[in-house]
Write a structure and sequence with these properties.
CATH class: Alpha Beta
CATH superfamily: 7,8-Dihydro-6-hydroxymethylpterin-pyrophosphokinase HPPK
Order of helices and strands: EHEEEHEEEHEEHE
Oligomer: single chain
CATH architecture: 2-Layer Sandwich
Number of strands: 10
Structural class: alpha+beta
Shape: globular
Number of helices: 4
């Protein structure tokens, strides 16, 4: 039985970005139950700026995989969809991040939950609020984070 809500962030800036995200969602659906998907948002690259803009979305799902098993499953999907990691924050066909896994807190070499940079990324926070997420990131409520981040710039749909 599914009993663990999760939020996943998806992004792509190589090839047909929307198609890449939809394919990733289709593969994810083989082991998780997707509940809601946010709008797709265009965002500037984060971390390394000399690359094409990203198309991003967030999904809410129910999951019965452990956080580590979910991460392994995600990495297999990224590989299947042609992700090649040349350098940190570089271009990618697909990137799937675990934003939150119920109220689980993990800080390890391979996995940090909630996602360590989520509270700094409008392309994550805005879709979370859109989906009705009700948890804190970095000790702060999502609507407050959204208000602060939107002061820098808004997001367009892609």
């Amino acid at each position: 039985m599914y009993n663990r809500w999760i939020y996943l962030g998806l992004g792509s800036n190589v090839g047909n970005r929307k198609k890449n995200i939809r394919l990733a969602i289709a593969y994810l659906s083989k082991k998780i139950t997707v509940i809601k998907i946010s709008k797709f948002y265009e965002s500037k690259p984060w971390g390394y700026e000399k690359q094409r803009n990203f198309c991003n979305a967030v999904l809410k799902a129910d999951c019965n995989l452990s956080p580590v098993d979910l991460l392994e499953f995600i990495k297999s999907i990224e590989k299947k969809l042609g992700r090649i990691k040349k350098f940190k924050w570089g271009p990618r066909t697909i990137d799937v991040d675990i934003i939150a896994y119920k109220n689980t807190i993990i800080k390890s070499k391979d996995l940090t939950l909630p996602h360590r940079f989520a509270h700094q990324r409008l392309f994550v926070v805005k879709p979370l609020v859109e989906l009705g997420a009700r948890f804190k990131l970095n000790g702060e409520d999502l609507p407050l984070i959204l208000e602060r981040l939107e002061g820098d710039s808004g997001l367009e749909t892609c």
